[in-house]
Amino acid sequence: MIEAPLQISLEAWDEAYESSGAFIGRETCYGGSLGRHVKDGNTRLKHLLFDNSFAALNLWNFLLTEEDRLYRARYEGKILVGTMKDLGTVPVIAYAFPDVVAFYPDGAWWIPCLMEADEELLSIADNLGVNDSFCPVRAMLGAFVSGEHFPVPDILVCSVGATCDDFSAIAQRVEGLGHPLLWWEIPHRREPGAREAAVALPGGTKACVDQVEAVMVELDRVICALSDKAGVKLTDSMLSESIVHANKVRACLMELRHVVFTAKTAPLPSLELLVAEMMGLHYCSDRREVLSVLSGLLETVKRRVDAGVGFQGPEAVKVFWVNPVADLRVMNMLEESGGRICGTEYLFTHALDLIPTDLPAREALARVALADPMAGSALDRAARICNDIEKFKAEAVIISRIPGASHCALEGEVIREVVAACKNVPVLEIDVPSMCDTFQETLQTRLGALVETVREQRKGR
Amino acid sequence: MYYAGVDVGSRTIKVAVIDETGRQGIASGICDQGVRQAALAHNLFDQVLTRAKISRQDILRIVATGYGRNAVEWADTTVTEITCQAYGVRQQVADVRTIIDIGGQDSKVIRLDERGIVYDFVMNDRCAAGTGRFLEIVAQRLEMGINDLGGIAETAVRPSIISSMCAVFAETEIVGLLANEESPADLAAGVQRAVAKRMVSMLGGRINGPVVFTGGVALIPGMSRALSDALDRTIVIADTPQTTAALGAAMIAGAATERAERSNRPVSAGAHYLEGIR
Fold first, then answer.
1. What is the mean pLDDT of residues A52-68?
2. B2-88+242-274: CATH, from 3.30.420.40, 3.40.50.720, 3.30.565.10, 3.30.470.20
3. Nearest to B240 by CA among B4, B19, B29, B22
4. Which CATH number describes the domain made up of B95-237?
5. Which residue has the higher pLDDT, B271 or A65?
6. I need a labelling partner for B117 at 20 to 30 A (CA). Which of A241, A333, A377, B138 fits?
7. Domain with CATH 3.30.420.40 in chain B
8. Chain B 80-99, residues with CB within 8 Å of chain A CB atoms
């Protein structure tokens, strides 16, 4: 096993895997070499750099075998819940039921990247009139039509209202293709009025009691639908137990983030951290195993920090990253440019915050759902980003835009203005479509210039 | 001894050589970009050295910049054009606070603090709108050279309104305006205004002076005035707008060497100029 933390190519990983006996006895049922996923069509992996730890290999293998788990669950007669858009809330409800597995069909938005657009998902979406002026999540539409990549869920649940317009349009097309959706509404979170009773939400925002109650009613509809499908009545204790488990995953991720962001030298690359954070949303279709995967990663990271080793020297520029990227390669480019991840806000911070356990379970979930950054204003997001910049001492901010994503066209500009005014750190906005190869040079220039700008500023101090 | 900067841009390649004081430019050169950009850069470099009557051995250090900087394998290191522009422009206008750089296929706004250090930048490099290429397309459509645009624009009576910011759609729009018998002068002035408005949008209302205009488009007559009118403030054109990035690259080469000498360390290939060490 390679000891020093490194970012290595797929080829190097496979060589290490083949030549090392270190994996014997540690392998999971989804384990194996990374290269086998290329044979399954995930050709983008050939262009990525990976953390060289066993824990990271485990993370990737877990991520890239979700489809297998879903088909196995179907084979075992489990109920498959396709949860869409809510980012983190409905899975907590779904996993409260026995023999129910939840997953996000939205996750198909990474397939065009991972398979380097070799599959037909985007063409199918194009043919349905959902062209590249829409968010890459349109790949989900193609996946529903092709019937590949995931089994058709037994029930589809989709949040609507204060969500992304693009997504709602695409989800409606899914429904139009004969896949009925249970829509539940999430209102735009607003500041409570002077005469309204306010409640605190996880993450530091507030909402009025009426809004929380409205979301509870909506979540009740979801609970009823899932109960009908599962043939089991959901009790408060079942939901509370699910919340406790969700909080274990969230606590693990919170600690992982904190350790990574505050380490003197970067102990984990930004790409693996992004993948790990995403797992907090949906558990990669195995709520029990995800905790083991993330705990393993956390242990590795802690060991590295204790040993004082990392990927880059302490001079690496500390970058706060806003929004997830459609092309995973771009995360590698951060380290290649001399930056390191030191704070993230991938539009689902509410799925990383602990769910209150001192409240009735349904109310706690409603509060978390309302804390969704997408349900509130861009100013709320900017405020949280500013707090985290301060907390983790980030020196620069990158806002990656997803072409076509329409939940707030000017959100990046709002965040840029607030951050620039409050924190006096440079902010870079970049567009990241599913494949960035054709303008990799220009992206490298921008990232490089950001790193240079921070270094110039340091020198001037 | 001397230091050199090579700016491999999208439309042209530029070379600048400065003396050992790190401040005095002694030679520069420009050539058009082409398919074999590494060879073109090398040829230009040799030509500039020949003209200056110096040899390759006299060059202590070379920094490459521009979008094709990685093609210059014989450079000691690479630095982005954002940082190089700041160094080059600051050499010419010491108290510059905002740089507007419009090149062949990209445009940038670079903001510097009171110490002359970059603290923020915005780039447009995925779309021809507001770039030299946009002006070239228009000049071709009007059957004139790009350098004639400014002269004819000065005779405009009522500058045309170009509403599209996309170079392709703007061309279509211009075809329609020509069909409506709008004069080339009005069209040229309208296009210059459109480019200027694009830059105003990139500036986002945050403008500190002095504002310096650089890049090849700064040489086009009338562009500076169009920018000045759109921003409602004085714009200074850099002394040598096409070569400020190359000049900055050469200065960075000099600064890195100086820092290394001060610390009594050899400058290795790829040493980072900002840290002075590797």
1. 95
2. 3.30.420.40
3. B29
4. 3.30.420.40
5. A65
6. A333
7. 2-88+242-274, 95-237
8. 80-83, 86
> What is the C-alpha to C-alpha distance for residues A111 and A326, in angstroms, rounded to an integer?
9
Collapsing DSSP to helix, strand or coil, B121 comes out as strand
Q: What's the confidence (pLDDT) of residue B20?
A: 85
Q: What is the CB-side half-sphere exposure of residue B16 using CA atoms within 13 A?
A: 29
A439 contacts B126? CB cut-off 8 A: yes
Structure tokens at B270: 């790829």
Q: How many whole angstroms separate alpha carbon B28 and alpha carbon B19?
A: 12
Minimum-distance CB partner of B83 among A431, A441, A449: A449
φ, ψ at B65 (rounded to 5°) = -145, -175
Alpha helices by DSSP H, chain B = 37-52, 81-92, 132-141, 148-153, 167-179, 184-203, 223-231, 244-262
Which chain B residue's Cα is nearest to A447?
B80
Q: By C-alpha distance, which of B175, B11, B7, B130 is closest to B75?
A: B7
Q: Assess B175–A contact: CB distance below 8 Å, yes or no.
A: no
Give the Cα separation of A257 and A275 in Å (integer).
12
CA distances from B241 to A37, A242, A340, B8, B247 (A): 51, 64, 34, 15, 10
What DSSP element (H or E) covers A160? strand A155-161
Question: Which tokens is B169 given?
Answer: 């759609």
**CB contact, 8 Å: B275 with chain A?**
yes
| Most B-contacting residue of A312, A444, A452 (CB-CB within 10 A), to test interface | A452
Contact assessment for residue B107 and residue B271, using Cβ atoms and an 8 Å cutoff = no
The pLDDT of residue A25 is above 90: no
Inter-residue contact A329 to A44 (CB < 8 Å): yes
CA B19 from centre of chain: 22
Please state, as a whole number, how many other Cβ atoms lie within 10 Å of the Cβ of residue B168: 13
The interface residues of chain B toward chain A in range 125-164, judged by CB-CB distance below 8 A, are 125-126
3-state secondary structure of B100: strand
- CA gap A348, A280 in Å, rounded: 9
Q: What is the mean pLDDT of residues A445-452?
A: 95
Q: Which residues of A touch B79 (CB under 8 A)?
A: 452
Q: Work out the number of other CB atoms within 10 angstroms of the CB of residue A291.
A: 17
Res A258 pLDDT > 50: yes
| pTM across the whole model | 0.90
Q: Which of residues 210-239 of B touch A (CB under 8 A)?
A: none
pLDDT digits (tens, 9 = 90+) for A146-199: 998 999 999 999 999 888 888 888 999 999 999 999 999 999 999 999 999 999
Low-confidence ranges of chain B (pLDDT < 50): 266-278
Q: Does B70 touch chain A (CB under 8 A)?
A: yes
CA A291, A292, A293, A295 dihedral sign is positive
Mutate to test the interface with B, among A424, A453, A455, A458 (most CBs of B within 10 A): A453
Closest C-alpha among A380, A375, A420 to residue A399: A420
Could you give the ipTM of this predicted complex? 0.82
CA separation for the pair B12, A461 (Å, rounded): 36
- Helix (H, G, I), strand (E, B), or coil: what is residue B128? coil
- Chain-centroid distance of CA A77 in Å reads 28
**Among all residues of chain A, which has the CA nearest to that of B205?**
A417
**B107 in reach of chain A (CB within 8 A):** no
- Whether B79 sits inside 8 A of A446 (CB atoms) is no
